Amino acid sequence: MLTTSEIRIRDPFILSDASNHTYFLYGTTDENVWEGPATGFDVYHSSDLEQWEGPFPAFRPEADFWADRHYWAPEVYLYEGSFYMFASFKAEGKCRATQILKADNPLGPFVTITEAPVTPIDWECLDGTLHVDQDGTPWMIFCHEWLQVQDGKMCAIRLTKDLRSPDGEPVILFQASEAPWTKTWDGTTYVTDGPFIYKNQQEELLLLWSSGGEKGYTIGIARSASGNVVGPWTHEELPLYAEDGGHGMLFHKFDGELMLTIHTPNNSPNERAIFLPVTEREGSLKLK
């Protein structure tokens, strides 16, 4: 068994399985996170968010898999009876991209469902996250990277029901510089990172996302004025978390408490997952 503080992980993501009273922890788990070659993704499981069993190999690439580095930010969703992983991958001479994988079990093994990613082939992209509309239409929200566009863009693309391919062209939701709390990463560029959709009690869509702030890696909240994924999106004045931690997502504990998980600090090899209770007030989210 490992404690949370013993697990080095970036971009933590929790899948809660109420049927087995089990939390599954996914994230960027390669030791050499910034270079190649990559190994894959590991998963841990726990009944209390404190003591974890693992690591277990959730994904290891097939011999002919196109990417060999930057295996980042896996997110896992139960959708149409199977478990789907959205994750970022990179290879020399190819754009970083989000690919979708599938398994029958939260522990994997996850395998690719298509040969190619679902993000545009000539876009540098990362951090795909799933959102399913009220009518059952699946969307993927993802980032068009600052590495290519300088002012990072948050985008959405409709997917086919089987999640195997895009069903239309990407829609730009906003650019990082539009939020009042963002700061440039290096004096000239703005980062978009780690989107995650949350529906509040008024059935409005809130989008958690990360960028640079006054104290480093920061999480802010955007709100869809129309109530659907294409927006338009407005930005809350103050960030949700501003203490050099980010790439957040929300989940409910088995007692119903809403939780935010992030990694902090944002420097390797010291990054760790933390779990913070969150409350919903006046349609927005606040740390308790």
Helix and strand layout, with pairings?
Layout: E1 2-3, E2 10-17, E3 22-28, E4 41-46, E5 51-59, E6 69-79, E7 82-91, E8 94-103, E9 111-112, E10 125-132, E11 138-144, H1 146-149, E12 153-158, E13 171-175, E14 193-199, E15 205-213, E16 216-224, E17 233-235, E18 246-252, E19 258-264, E20 272-281, E21 284-287
Antiparallel strand pairs: 1-5, 2-3, 3-4, 4-5, 6-7, 7-8, 8-9, 10-11, 11-12, 12-13, 14-15, 15-16, 16-17, 18-19, 19-20, 20-21
Tell me about this structure.
The protein has 288 residues and is mostly beta strands. It has a single domain (2-287), classed as 5 Propeller (Tachylectin-2, Chain A). It is 1% helix and 51% strand. The protein contains 1 helix and 21 strands. The protein has one helix spanning 146-149, and strands at 2-3, 10-17, 22-28, 41-46, 51-59, 69-79, 82-91, 94-103, 111-112, 125-132, 138-144, 153-158, 171-175, 193-199, 205-213, 216-224, 233-235, 246-252, 258-264, 272-281, 284-287. The strands form 5 sheets. A 5-stranded antiparallel sheet has the order 1-5-4-3-2, with no helix packed on it. β14 and β15 (205-213) form a beta hairpin. The longest helix is centred in the middle third of the chain and has 4 residues, at 146-149. The protein is globular. The two termini are 29 Å apart. 41% of the residues are buried.
